[in-house]
Amino acid sequence: xxxxxxxxxxxxxxxxxxxxxxxxxxxxxxxxxxxxxxxxxxxxxxxxxxxxxxxxxxxxxxxxxxxxxxxxxxxxxxxxxxxxxxxxxxxxxxxxxxxxxxxxxxxxxxxxxxxxxxxxxxxxxxxxxxxxxxxxxxxxxxxxxxxxxxxxxxxxxxxxxxxxxxxxxxxxxxxxxxxxxxxxxxxxxxxxxxxxxxxxxxxxxxxxxxxxxxxxxxxxxxxxxxxxxxxxxxxxxxxxxxxxxxxxxxxxxxxxxxxxxxxxxxxxxxxxxxxxxxxxxxxxxxxxxxxxxxxxxxxxxxxxxxxxxxxxxxxxxxxxxxxxxxxxxxxxxxxxxxxxx
Length: 341
Known about the structure:
Strand content: 15-25%
InterPro entries: YwqG-like_sf
Organism: Kitasatospora griseola (Streptomyces griseolosporeus)
Protein name: DUF1963 domain-containing protein
Structural class: alpha+beta
Oligomer: single chain
Number of helices: 5
């Protein structure tokens, strides 16, 4: 089912014409539970990978705040919790019985960290035909994103980008290696999702605007009211409801929030990086309700399982933040850059 972002509560560029030249297109991916195949765009799905091409591995040092677990441990833990959340329960009945609690504790106990290379985990596969405005190197029609599902020096999973021509892939790798170690809580393991791309318009967050304009937007937000007469979210109204869309997306603006933007320049050529791909810990929350797609505004029928409607991929960055991947505008061969906001 397609997903439709409601019109913004206010045409902010009409009220503040200085914003109009800063408009950018972003493509909200709207990942939802599915069973995507290798010839489809997806989050957490299988990759179109040549059988004769080496699968990438991570050889960087890892920060193990808690013992790592296996990918199978994460999958089994989620399946157990999903089944129990969905089953009918009597008032006061525990979610898990003693045997299930023992199994869950065992799955979450972890194991000693491996010291060798850690195979990467598929995160997203984006066919350019599905993503309006997404371009790649000459001849490439597919972007694949993988990462090492462990914390590194920057407290982020280490991402790896692959651009390829899907038409030149012969025999396929059907059984890619799984990571030996996954972060203890499984926060970096995306569940398989089909995508429903939708182009929207974004504007910079206040931290990327001239201070005078940001101050005027803050003052306007303090006085703004929703059409139904309820008070809006004060000075943050522009930031949360009118500037940057939440959720997994391609392009647009960076969601600067809890720290000031810093210069991000390609080490090879000095060009300013541009946003490519955003991984979010949820598609909406209490501060971004106007971005909830029309098709998701009614509560789902029946009980809600372990997989929240606002976070079908079940990925969490930090304490509920986003990970953005930036690329150099002069060459796709130059290194990308990752930031957390």
